[in-house]
Amino acid sequence: MPEHIAIYPGSFDPPTLGHLDLIQRAAKLFHKVIVAVAHNDQKNALFSFEERAEMLKELVADIPNAEVDHFQGLTVDFARKHHAVAILRGLRAVSDFEYEFSLSVNNRKLHEELDTVCLMSSEPYLFLSSRMVKEIASYGGKISHFVTPAVERRIREKFAKNC
Ligand code: ADP
User: Fold this and answer.
1) What are φ and ψ of residue 155, in 5° steps?
2) Residue 150, domain CATH
3) Spatial separation of the C-alpha atoms in residues 55 and 153, rounded to whole Å
4) How far, in Å, from the CA of 1 to the mean position of ligand 1?
C-alpha cells in the first residue's frame, strides 16, 4: 500500500501550540505529515520563511513522521510533487469554516484526487492564532501559554529589534 501523505500548508508566522497540536494529531492519522511553509506574501510577515521553517523543525523534532518544507505558488502543485493524498487544515471557531470550505472546493477543482482534511481545534487552542500572539507580544504581554519557549524567545528578539 502506498504511503498516505498529508501536507499541512500555512503561514506559521509564528508557529503556535495550536499548530503543533494539529500536527501531532495528524501524525497519528497519516504515514507522513509534511508541514509546508508558504512564502507567497512575505511583505507582512514578522518572520522570514527560513525562520518559520527553522522554528517548525524544532517544533516537530520529536515527531518521527513529520517533516518541514516550504513552497511558493499553488498548494496543489506542492501536494502533487509530494504525492500527497490530503491537505491538512485546522478549524477553530465557526469563523474559519467559510474560508477553509471555499479553499477546499477550489483546490478540489485544481486537483480532483486531493482531499482536504480539517481537524477541529483542541479546546485550549480554539481561539489561538499567530496574529493574536504577535499582537499580545507587541505590547509586551505574556505568550507562554500559546507558543513554545524557543518560539517565545524568537518573538521577543524580533520585537526588541523592531523597537
Ligand atoms: P494561513 O495563513 O494559511 O491560514 P496559518 O499558519 O494561520 O496559515 O494556519 C494554518 C492552518 O492551521 C489553517 O488551516 C488554520 O485554520 C490552522 N490553525 C491555526 N491555528 C490553529 C489553532 N489554534 N487550532 C487549530 N487550527 C489552527
Assistant:
1) -65, -45
2) 3.40.50.620
3) 11
4) 30
Q: Which domain holds residue 35?
A: 5-162
Of all residues in the chain, what percent are helix, strand and coil, respectively (each to 5)? 45, 20, 35
Side chain identity, residue 94: V
- 147 φ, ψ (degrees, to nearest 5): -140, 165
* CA 58 to ligand 1 centroid distance, Å: 18
12 close to ligand 1 (CB < 6 Angstrom): yes
Atom of ligand 1 nearest to the CA of 100: 14
Active site (catalytic) residues = 19, 43, 92, 130
Helix or strand run (H / E) with residue 52: helix 49-59
Pocket test for ligand 1, best of 89, 98, 106, 135 (most atoms within 8 A of CB): 89
Q: Grid coordinates 494539529 are at which residue? A: 22
Is pTM beyond 0.85 here?
yes
Q: Give the confidence band of 131 by pLDDT, cuts at 50, 70, 90.
A: very high
How far apart are the CA of 91 and the centre of ligand 1, in A?
7
Task: Tell me the pLDDT tens digit for each residue of 58-115.
Answer: 999 999 999 999 999 999 999 999 999 999 999 998 889 999 999 999 999 999 999 9
